[in-house]
Amino acid sequence: MKKRVGVAILGLGVVGGGTYRTLVDHREFYLKTQNVDIVVESVLDKNTARLKELGVPEECIAGSIAEVVANPAIDIVIETIGGVGVAKEFVMMALKEGKSVVTANKEMISKCSHELERIAKRNSCGLYYEASCVGGVPIIRTLLDGVQANHVLEMMGIVNGTTNYILTKMTQDGTDYQTALKEAQALGYAEFDPTNDVEGFDSTYKLSILSSMAFHTKVPYTKVHREGISSVKVEDITIGKEFGYTLKLLAIGKNTPSGIDVRVHPTFIPDAHPLASVNDAYNAVYLRGDALDDIMLYGKGAGAFPTASAVVSDVIYAATHSEIKYSTFKNNATADSDVKFVTDFSSAYYIRLSVDDQAGVLAKISSIFAKYGISIVEIAQKSKNAGEERVPLIIITHKTHENAMKNAVAKINASDMAAVEAVIRVEA
Amino acid sequence: MKKRVGVAILGLGVVGGGTYRTLVDHREFYLKTQNVDIVVESVLDKNTARLKELGVPEECIAGSIAEVVANPAIDIVIETIGGVGVAKEFVMMALKEGKSVVTANKEMISKCSHELERIAKRNSCGLYYEASCVGGVPIIRTLLDGVQANHVLEMMGIVNGTTNYILTKMTQDGTDYQTALKEAQALGYAEFDPTNDVEGFDSTYKLSILSSMAFHTKVPYTKVHREGISSVKVEDITIGKEFGYTLKLLAIGKNTPSGIDVRVHPTFIPDAHPLASVNDAYNAVYLRGDALDDIMLYGKGAGAFPTASAVVSDVIYAATHSEIKYSTFKNNATADSDVKFVTDFSSAYYIRLSVDDQAGVLAKISSIFAKYGISIVEIAQKSKNAGEERVPLIIITHKTHENAMKNAVAKINASDMAAVEAVIRVEA
């Protein structure tokens, strides 16, 4: 009854190395608990020092991708190279040879899942990518096989550890963005060029993958409204706290009557929200379903072994289930042209202005908001900062449209009595 | 390509009713997103008012279980009766006719899964019970298909909403146990006879199910050390707060070198622990895997629709996967006789004593702890309560063995200088 499954690993970086070690160290365990003997047949990486460090036996080192895909002993190919170039080329070669693919590559899946899933389907093999989102947390398995009885109404995720670490430092220690970023870089949480993380690209890829599954349609990452954290001021985090809010970089997906609303931006959430206490490099996805109500999955969003856990869980799933999971395309849908996306989304807002310290200013600002149909929940005037002439004024609004808010902000900035210093969206 | 699946629902109580409505209301949705047409063929319940209230059509009302199991149009039987009597009898009849069973029945699964899984296997059908634990939260799917790459090292769960509601009230409002229980009863969170919840039986059933899966062996509920919350004093919750601890009724499972350690008892955890902010009727399971590190799943632990979400997700899983999941027995293991269980477990402790207000008492108590090898982390003497002669003394210990602690407590109680008023275990 034991099933033998041969795997190849392409790329022995952090995740590939963790995957190799996990598979080798747990072979007996999987044989015992899963009835499947998972054998690493082949490893492809040019870095001989790394191959040695991981103890890969000589006979398992592949000379080329051609050798890997031609090997009949290999059933599943694990791609841990990253990016869209070579990785995509190799994955396509594997799928075309009828080998199922397990990948941790969020950029490739976000950009090319349509194309890759079609090739997989044509060749009767599977494409699995649990590890592309939120490390070891089984969010994709949950969407596919755990909450599939629900219309998913909305999801909000902290899906990038680097930015969550930086925002946590800014919140807890009052350090500014640049200092917190440097700390994150020193600890290896942020890369030398942090753009991909701090400007929200990484979160955008993940949101496009997760919302495609949650909403049963393809959500291209280009449809995601994206703002990063590089212009977040610690001053706003501190003031937000006084209002009972915590600032997080959220990946938000909502299935609304007017279309799919997907966005990544710094967001204030109430301190009591389960996402508010997800700190440091931890990630979490909070979602609401129509039957389920709300759930949250929480865990390490990155790292060699947490991500390897997701890769290997997919390998076991692929090895023990004959049904192939075409994730977003179970129903063979190909035409997504009729899917609507929200462009002018709705949100509540936190706005910090600096205003002239004189009578009548508040009335004028209020009238601008009123003109654009924006209703105000709370106004607080703060004491003047040392050396500044203008007074900080904080406004929290009810839900309104993004465009109305943009117009109101432009109008205020065009006046000579006040300037908008910060606009941060608020989710409940 | 569309697959037609007929289901029967046995018992239209809270969960059965929610399941019926979910299946009927989502039929088109499942057809579109899951490629499967799930048809409620038959419903068995004697309560005609309830059948009418839910709008069950005449032709779907079954006259007897015999009629249900004889119906070839029924592929899957959903059991939402509860308990071990009739429910088990009906489930066995369905399995023997080769019908897969989906159940929300934690008591039956905890007590009889061995027997039922054997019958299921003999008849090539499946037995699914996601809904037996933690409502709509897909903890069983996660253990089976999401984190199966890991040795699960430990799990800690808040798996009973009633007791979590009561403890949250005691913590936040300082109400005593009896008052909080009455509130919970008034809100429908606690039953008229609350024993099953407040004495930890419900948590014990769930822990036996979850730890069986997590540790790949049968963990009988009778092996679980069980203590409820009925003797918890609000005084200890308040003092615990001063030490940075939150009190929760935890279901704890650990896979230790000396055996499986399973217990349900009131437990102090640090305020910063993710489980500490799981309040009211919410549930959560926190677990650590050897690759994964730590994750937590959080959500509504009960209620008609959250539980129906789990039932229906199992139905869809059963309908779309030909592989049958014998949960704890994938490896055909039947002999569990070699599984060791820890009886004298280890824990850190919070101890509240009332001691004579005189010199030398502290030295004597310290020497008793020392005698039993119990090492003290922190001692705090509180001010005397009004009208009392003795002084409250709080001791927090390092990890020690339960039996050592019991002996020390007995020794102190046998003395005439002090009495132990409360002993609460502490987990980090």
Keywords:
homodimer, alpha/beta, Rossmann fold, Alpha-Beta Plaits, 3 domains, eleven-stranded mixed β-sheet, 15 helices, 16 strands, 26% strand
> CATH homologous superfamily of the largest domain in chain A - what is it?
Dihydrodipicolinate Reductase, domain 2
CATH architecture of the largest domain in chain A: 2-Layer Sandwich
Low-confidence stretches of chain A: 329-335
For the record, give the distance between the C-alpha atoms at the N and C termini of chain A, rounded to a whole number.
51 Å
For the record, the CATH class of the largest domain in chain A is Alpha Beta
Tally of alpha and pi helices of chain A = 15
**Main β sheet profile of chain A:** 11 strands, mixed
Count of distinct strands of chain A: 16
Greatest interface (CB-CB under 8 A), with counts per chain: A-B, 57 and 57 residues
Radius of gyration of chain A: 24 Å
What is the average per-residue confidence, as pLDDT of chain A, rounded to a whole number? 94
Which structural category do the helix and sheet elements of chain A fall into?
alpha/beta
Oligomer: homodimer
CATH topology name of the largest domain in chain A, in short, is Dihydrodipicolinate Reductase, domain 2
Tell me the helix content of chain A: 25-40%
- State which percent range the strand residues of chain A make up: 25-35%
Domains of chain A (count): 3
Shape type of chain A: elongated
